[in-house]
Amino acid sequence: MDFTFDITLKTRKIFYHFLDTLSLEKLNTIPEGFNNTIFWNIKHCVVVQQMLVYGLSNLPLYISAKEIAGYKKGTKPESDATQAEVDTCKKQLFDLLKQTETDLVDGVFKTYNEYTVTTKTTLTSATEAMEFNNFHEGIHLGYIMALLKCV
């Protein structure tokens, strides 16, 4: 799993860079032809990782119900993110990943509700969920790169 977490960490460092260097206006811009923002894509990745790994393991998530409702699959930005929300997300990028590593080592993930993702791959464990999560975050990194050309 070290390799899996290393990939996630590297992607999240890139996400952090965007959150840290782009203006709030750019993070919140929905360019023509797009449905969401740079911030939405990053926060969506935080939320989906929690849902795939913890939610499907029948464990409490380390994020709020409000965050889930605003950034889960099928949502779009309903309002601009605030600087406080950006700051929280910057912290979550690393804190939640570290928590997942700790929980994996500690054997917290005992059960998993199989889930078939949009690529028709069925996840059968928290470990597989983390591996798939890298693919998912890579897709959203690609969206962000496209958004960057338009903001």
Explain what the structure shows.
The radius of gyration is 15 Å and the shape is globular. The chain has a single domain (2-148), classed as Up-down Bundle (Four Helix Bundle (Hemerythrin (Met), subunit A)), CATH 1.20.120. The chain has a two-stranded antiparallel sheet with strand order 1-2. It is an all-alpha fold and 151 residues long. Helix content is 62%, strand content 3%.
Write a compact overview of the structure shown.
By secondary structure, the protein is mainly α. Helix content is 62%, strand content 3%.
End-to-end Cα distance: 36 Å
CATH topology: Four Helix Bundle (Hemerythrin (Met), subunit A)
- The multimeric state of the shown protein is single chain
Per DSSP, the total helix count is: 6
CATH superfamily: dinb family like domain
- SS content category: mainly alpha
SSE layout and pairings?
Layout: H1 2-21, H2 24-27, H3 38-53, H4 65-71, H5 83-105, E1 115-116, E2 122-123, H6 126-148
Antiparallel strand pairs: 1-2
Helix pairs in contact: 1-5, 1-6, 3-4, 3-5, 3-6
What are its keywords?
151 residues, mainly alpha, Four Helix Bundle (Hemerythrin (Met), subunit A), two-stranded antiparallel sheet, 3% strand, globular
